[in-house]
Design a protein that fits this description.
The protein is an alpha/beta fold. It contains 8 helices and 7 strands, in the order αααβαβαβαβαβαββ.
Length: 221
């Protein structure tokens, strides 16, 4: 039986050559985001965004919730995967970053499929529950400030329908989750979230050692 494979840059390049369905819009959005050195680490990896799009397709998700837009790469990929009449609702606090997102959404022809909500994410999620009710989304992707992940998870779990799916990014958090010396608020929040997910009888989970850690959560019917 094979063990967990260590992935170096050569093998990662091979994975992308063999599986990544790329185009100029996606490449240029990654390049522009890479020009923000302090922020580049916040961009979802292209193979992860392609996985999110695949999850939208295989689940038939019509209403997708995203917490944390940044420059709009993952929302662009998910919007492209929507069925007719579908919508991605994404929330962020930054007008600067989401202005970049809007430009690329328009270039990709998905601007009308994405509803951007600017403001405090927790308040936005409360507003969505008041506006649409519990269980009003099919799939949710969380990739926002880590200190509030547990709160966002609880809110998103309420908003996702029974049988729906959540995907939570950064659940390995640069490997710091297993470093006893890492006691910063973000790492502590991710550890708290991971323990909550492990013990949460409302859901089924699978933590994937891809990118910075991606945990898939199925809300039990």
């Amino acid at each position: 039986m094979a063990g967990q494979l260590a992935v170096d840059e050569t093998l990662l390049d091979y994975v992308r050559q063999m599986s990544l369905r790329d185009d100029d819009v996606l490449r240029e959005l990654r390049a522009e985001t890479a020009g923000m050195p302090m922020l580049q680490a916040m961009l979802v990896l292209p193979e992860e965004a392609q996985l999110l799009a695949l999850l939208v397709q295989v689940t038939g998700a019509r209403r997708v919730l995203e917490v944390g837009t940044f420059t709009g790469y993952s929302s662009l990929c998910m919007a492209r995967a929507l069925p007719p009449g579908g919508k991605v609702v994404t929330c962020d606090i930054s007008e600067r970053w989401t202005a970049v997102a809007r430009r690329y959404w328009e270039r990709a022809g998905v601007g009308e499929l994405i509803d951007l909500r600017l403001g405090d994410a927790a308040r936005t999620l409360d507003d969505l529950r008041a506006q649409h009710g519990p269980g009003s989304f099919d799939l949710a992707f969380l990739d926002a400030d880590k200190a509030n992940y547990v709160r966002y998870y609880e809110q998103a779990l309420t908003l996702v329908r029974p049988g729906g799916l959540l995907a939570l990014d950064n659940t390995l958090f640069f490997g710091k989750v297993v470093d006893p010396a890492a006691q910063d608020p973000d790492t502590l929040a991710i550890r708290e979230l991971n323990a909550l997910l492990r013990d949460d009888e409302r859901v089924d989970i699978s933590m994937l050692a891809v990118a910075d850690g991606l945990t898939l959560v199925h809300k039990k019917p």
